[in-house]
Amino acid sequence: MSEAFAFVEVDWAGRTVCIEHRWIAPERTTAPLIVFLHEGLGSLAMWKDFPQRLCDAALCRGLVYSRPGYGRSTPRAAQEAWGLDFMHQQAHVVLPAFLHAVGIDPVAQAPWLLGHSDGASIALLYAAQFAQAIAGAIVVAPHILVEELSLTSIAAARTAYLETDLRQRLAKYHDDPDSAFWGWNNIWLHPPFREWSIEAEIEAIRCPLLAAQGMDDEYGTLEQIHGIARRVPQTELLELSDCGHSPHRDQAERLIAAASAFITQQTGDKP
Question: Signal peptide: which range, if any (predicted)?
């Protein structure tokens, strides 16, 4: 069973931020740990029951959290704009600080990372930077470069936020929906961000890697995961038909089956 969410404090960018998190099946003390990294508009709550279902299928522990700016974690400061390196900051600074704050030594007990969208890119950046501090990664609808399709859909999301009930719907999952939405939307649509790419950096990844994407993804083409496979030879690909940008919602059973089999394949039958 999952524990109720809790908070820890970390120092980031010159201030203290609180990060909400929840453990899944902490009683499986010797089992692999999966850390879940949400999408650009996501949060702990927006995963719904997917982390629990995957952890049960794979007999793993889980740790789900909301990055600063999202969910019940500390919102963005007023007028704070994220930089072109915002995903690097999350991978190289915030995630390691968060793991330390909750008592995880990732070298002694290397976690698995499962990330979706921006969270998947963060997982890739962490894996490239901290080769000795990760057991493996599952990246779902990752971004390794900026495509016109992505920008078109993100611009459409801006219109929806301004003109429809999207803000009210996001308010169910974020204490400050403006913090979550504009932090993500403004940087992705910032003209210099068109040149953003992590294609070269991910070549340093050495851990087992499963890259999954829906074939109807409205935020990226299959070139995103094919590009990963060309640069990280051990990558296994999962292309999901009848599936958009959120495989954990559109094709949850297929993703859970593939992800749990991949983890078991890498870890054996250890409980």
Answer: none
